[in-house]
Fold this sequence. Notes:
By secondary structure, the chain is mostly helical. Helices cover 69% and strands 0% of the residues. Helix 4 (58-71) packs antiparallel against helix 5. The longest helix has 28 residues, at 170-197. The termini are far apart.
Amino acid sequence: MNCQFDRFSPWRALLAVVVLTVGLAGCGLFPEVKQETSGWSADRLYQTAHEAMLQGNYTRATKLFDELEARFPYGRYAQQAILESAFANWRANETAAAIAAADRFIRTYPNHPNVDYAYYLKGLVYFREDQGIIGYVYELDLAERDPKEMRNSFAAFKELTSRFPDSQYYQDSIARMRYLNNAMATYEVNVATYYYNRGAYVAAVNRAQASLIGFPQTPANERALGLMRSSYAKLGLAQLSEDSQQILAKTYPDSRYIAGIPRTPWWKFWTREENSYGVEATDQMAAKPWWAFWE
Length: 295
């Protein structure tokens, strides 16, 4: 027993040193920032943080913005620090911190002339919330993700467009709302398709109906009607299947779901059904840079 303890004790000692070193390093992160910035004015803190952000050093930028807000909680620089910290956190994929900063600005400065930007940024954060690094390389289909973030994004853009119809972010927000509406409808149809392919035809009908009722006049309605027709046919409900067929033919006379859709070979796994969401975000921003929102 003693021999085994003696044999492993050097490793335990090394592990203890590593843990202690990491702990001390973690504890020293913020004191280093405070030491470095001790005696700095609000202007110098802001300019340094802003430069770090523009250079893509978002971690340093957020720490400096937090320090600025803590030491100078009132005034113009504090307001700018909250919004720019929200942006820097978003770009650093710290989505929870980005949302928290945007919400804090909205609560603290509800009548600020640039509060529309806080709503817009919230919408953007949720719009791409779960894509992470991969999302910048390959544009993930929003209709294949959890709709919670899509709903949150839609709500933020809707709040902006309802309260600030003259906002410089209005047009882009409207376009993103249309895209999200179409994507959420497609999500419902994707779920309906999942149930249909597994023989759960009642569930397929329910999800297809949810898409038609919740998201009328969206491209996904065509697929929803086709699924309802096929599901009712599988259930032996000939009249309901025929009714769905008639509605499909009347609404989409050239629909490929009327004549039938050939199956995609299994080996063409990279081929996706074309999703015509109808609208793409415009990225139509103001002429001045986003970070000059206080001017």
